Predict the structure.
Amino acid sequence: MMRRTLILLFAAVTLAAPLAAAAPAGKIFAMPAKLFPVGPNPNAVACRDLNDDGQVDIVTADRGLLADPREERPANDELSVLLADPKTGYTRQTPSLKTGFGPYAVVIANVDGLKWPDIVVANFHDVRHRDVTAFLNLHTEGIFKPVEVRIPEEKLVYARQKDGEGIPLFTKPGLTSIAVQDVNGDGLRDLLATAWSCDAIVFMEGNKDTIFANPRTFTAPGAPRDLRLGDLNGDGKTDMAVVYYASAEVGVWYGDDKGNFTEHTRFPTRGNLPTTVRIADMNNDGLPDIIVSHCHSEDSIVIFYNDPAGTWACSQEICLGKDRRVLEHEIRDIVVDDFNGDKRQDIAAACYASGEVAVLLNASRGPELPQTFVHETYPFAKGKPRALDAADTGNSGKKDLVVALWDVNAVGVMKNLTKTPEPEPAPKPKKASEPEPDSKSKKNR
Ligand SMILES: [Ca+2]
Ligand SMILES: [Ca+2]
Ligand SMILES: [Ca+2]
Ligand SMILES: [Ca+2]
């Protein structure tokens, strides 16, 4: 493959990553993580309170082994549901929820008329047209009612690898990521998914009766691998960031609030095999930025900073490894959140090859670029981090990390050790003549 240029087009500012010296391990999160068993090869994890007891629960999409994707495997394609349990931490619900073939991505969102959050999973290899399964939360003894959703593939053209006889290795549409959110303003949550096998983005509007309906596809060449939603151009309408695995590009799609998306621009990710895209304001300038991670030898996370003109010309690369020609970490997933409560967004990465979770704490004070990050590492003695999510698992007011681990088939919960900041001292009584400070100058102090 042609080596991609590391310089972005148009007066690009490519910033060297000023990774501050590594902090002592275990500063923010407790290790070893407490492990809870799940099904074979958890490929995705999502956390939310499912049963309304005020405790965060955990769901993993367990995809089993993919020796030959054309062979349907035994019944190990499932979701593991771990319900919070005051005695044990988490108890795995039995039986697990059976999905289509190769559950790949999972989100928890309320998609039916009942008030409890439901589970929506994308099945990557499904051969019986169960491309998406929505498990409706009936809030009755842990019962979830499965609704299978088929994505019409007649008009989709297969675009990925074939075997020696020209037979596709994967099925259509080959969903690798999903987002569930109301993007057309009718109050029903809609679904967007990357159809990796056929270079398309799938959109289905929320429907009262069938959950999702009226599938449409947008052409998206380059093997779309992951997507996230957010207002990227500040017009109040939901937009989309897409990462392309084969062409190693980011696409910025503008939405019109009616369910239509148009690709405004795309640009190289500065690495190879980008797998994950996130949207967050990394430098606190009020503009949402795009964060991409690669599972190739760069071992890199790249932040693309937003600008009012929508050029995305300024980016910052953070390499977790020592040599960008050697695969040291194999970043498989990232989560962006404020872990230490300083109101600056931090990044945690699931590193499959090195068997560790890397945490990048934003140590900058202002919006100036590049931003500075302190790098912490959390090695796992057993298991390979494959996916992760941030959630307050113990109602401590802080985000813990929940890590899906291959090999040991478990999730590891890394408790956040950040001390709750001391409450601000009560203000001194003011003299009658003292003017009220206006709220803006107070905020900017
Ligand atoms: Ca909708
Ligand atoms: Ca917008
Ligand atoms: Ca920003
Ligand atoms: Ca922070």
Residues 182, 184, 186, 188, 190, 205-206 surround calcium ion (ligand 1) (CB under 6 Å). Residues 1-12, 432-445 have pLDDT under 50 and may be disordered. The helical segments are 439-444. The chain has one helix and 31 strands.
